[in-house]
Every structure is written in C-alpha cells, then in structure tokens.
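Retry 2 of 3 after timeout on previous attempt. Resubmitting structure tokens to design endpoint.
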C-alpha cells in the first residue's frame, strides 16, 4: 500500500473533541495503530470541497485538524437522525470515494428492496410482503409473522403477530414522530426452549480484496420473540453456545451472501455490514437483514472476555479504514 494516505471518519462531533483519550476506545487505538503504518485518520462531521475539519488521534489526546485533504471517507454517520447535516456532508464530498456509500446504505435500509434483490440472486429468506391489504391472508398461511417498519433499525417497532392481531399500515421507526410503511415477514420457528435465537455476523472487505467474517454473536431470549440486545436479549459469543455444525452452516450462509454482494453495483464501495440471521427449530440459519451500520457486537464480546476479543475489536475498527486507504492504489 502506498503510505501517507488520509481517511476521514464521518461521525458527529459538533466541533467538540471526544471527552476520553483515544487509548480508551478501540476506534481510537485503531487510529493510533494506523498512523504508525502511514494512514492518517481524521474524525469529524464538517467537510468543504473534500477537505475535513475535525480531530486527529494522538497519544493521550486529540489534536484539532482543519481543512485536511482526504483520499476517502468512511461513513459512520447517523444519517436518519441527522438528515440535514448528512445532506450537507454529501454535498461537500467533491468526488471522494466513500466506504459504505449512500447507494449501499439506502439499499440496506430498505428491508423490502434488499430482500427482493438478494432472493432474486439465490439467497433464501423468509417470505415478506408490503401489501397491507393482503397481510391477514399471508398471516393465516404462515401462522405467525413479524410486523416491521420498512426502514427500521435496532428492533424499534418490530412485533410478532398472530392471526387476529392488529397490523397497521404504518408503525413507528427509528426516527421519532416519523411513522414508516409496515412490512410483514414470515416467522421462523425457534429452536426448542427459546422464543428466539438470532445471530449477528460482522462482514468486512479486506485490504487484499477478500472478505472477513467476524465471530458470530448470538442474541437469544426465552421470552421475547424479538431477540435484540436493545430489548434486553442475552448476548453471547457463538462458539460458546452453538455447536460446530451450526457454526459451519452460519459461515456457509454468510459466505454465499458475500458472493452475491460482489455482484451488486450498490455494494461496490461497501466495506462492512452486519448480517442478521435467525436460527430455526433445527438450528439452520435464515438470513433476515443486512445492516450498513454495524456496531456494538464486538464491544459486547470484548466486554465478555477482553483477553480473547479486545485485539479483534481493534482489528475490526481498523480494517475498513485500511481498505479505503488502499482504494486508489488498486484502481
């Protein structure tokens, strides 16, 4: 890789430096590590003609950086909650390549469009519909289903429904006060003894042009059919709670998804994603979502066992930045 590349990380700062030193966070330690191999990392949310104003990680602190020319940016910005600011950032990219660029973000956010594309390319997923008039017909055929906001996140607004339940045409999504169209997805029967067992796998492109699969993280609940960490589900490392056959099936399923993503134009500048799967009664994985803002799961693993997962967490923070830094040298 050609040294002395500069990558901007789009995160909210509002002009204020982070309150804790970079050594206190995996992303800060990743930035310090990358600086040692010639990759300069600037964190910020202010761009002007492809130049970023923000902060650079230095040992034990943060140094203001003004008008720094970038070679690329990585999008970690909460674009739904800060839509106006995000549009300003997009307007000032000035042709810069962006990791997890807007086409991929918009595809991943639209659960219906994502499923239609993936199923057309051979990825099996539980049936889904956005035809509100036919919700009751499909639910009677499936027996149970999940009602979801079409553009939702973090499990907000998701509920399991059965015949006779109300299924409104719009439900609350991730942005308060902005209801979203509802979609209905067939439920997968959970393994015996569980209300739900889902798996999140981090996938990332590698600087060599291949794919990295992270450690599967299980979210499971014996009471809540929506097993989401934000709703209180138990979170555990997959190798601790799943057998080898199940882990191999998950790896095969995710590998197939990566091959399909390589075929999509929207994924051309994708550098990472969070893959959500649900385990059926035979512990076979079914893909249900692809998330363009993966976060939190490596943090959970690192908290669970720092000696085992802390370095992997830092690697996961650094890998997408290194990929973006190498784009121009490969193009």
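Retry 2 succeeded. Sequence:
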């Amino acid at each position: 890789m050609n040294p002395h590349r500069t990558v901007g990380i789009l995160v909210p700062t509002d002009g204020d430096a982070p309150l804790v030193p970079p050594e206190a966070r995996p992303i800060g330690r990743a930035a310090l590590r990358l600086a040692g191999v010639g990759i300069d990392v600037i964190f910020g949310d202010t761009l002007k003609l492809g130049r970023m104003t923000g902060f650079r990680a230095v040992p034990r602190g943060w140094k203001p950086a003004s008008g720094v020319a970038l070679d690329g940016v990585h999008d970690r910005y909460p674009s739904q909650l800060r839509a106006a600011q995000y549009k300003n950032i997009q307007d000032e990219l000035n042709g810069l390549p962006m990791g997890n660029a807007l086409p991929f973000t918009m595809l991943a956010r639209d659960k219906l469009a994502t499923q239609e594309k993936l199923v057309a390319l051979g990825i099996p997923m539980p049936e889904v519909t956005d035809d509100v008039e036919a919700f009751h017909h499909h639910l009677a055929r499936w027996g149970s289903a999940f009602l979801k906001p079409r553009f939702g996140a973090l499990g907000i607004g998701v509920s399991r429904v059965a015949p006779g339940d109300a299924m409104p045409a719009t439900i609350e999504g991730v942005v308060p006060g902005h209801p979203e169209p509802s979609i209905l997805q067939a439920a997968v029967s959970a393994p015996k003894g569980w209300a739900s067992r889902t798996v999140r796998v981090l996938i990332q492109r590698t600087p060599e042009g291949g794919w990295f699969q992270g450690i599967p993280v299980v979210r499971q609940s014996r009471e809540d059919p929506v097993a989401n960490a934000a709703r209180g589900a138990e979170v555990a490392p997959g190798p601790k709670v799943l057998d080898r056959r199940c882990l191999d099936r998950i790896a095969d399923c995710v590998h197939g998804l990566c091959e399909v993503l390589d075929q999509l134009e929207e994924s051309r500048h994708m550098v990472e994603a969070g893959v959500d799967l649900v385990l059926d009664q035979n512990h076979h994985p079914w893909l249900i979502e692809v998330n363009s803002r993966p976060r939190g799961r490596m943090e959970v693993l690192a908290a669970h066992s720092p000696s085992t997962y802390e370095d992997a967490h830092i690697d996961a923070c650094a890998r997408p930045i290194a990929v973006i830094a190498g784009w121009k040298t490969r193009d």
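Attempt log closed. The first helix runs from residue 26 to 35.
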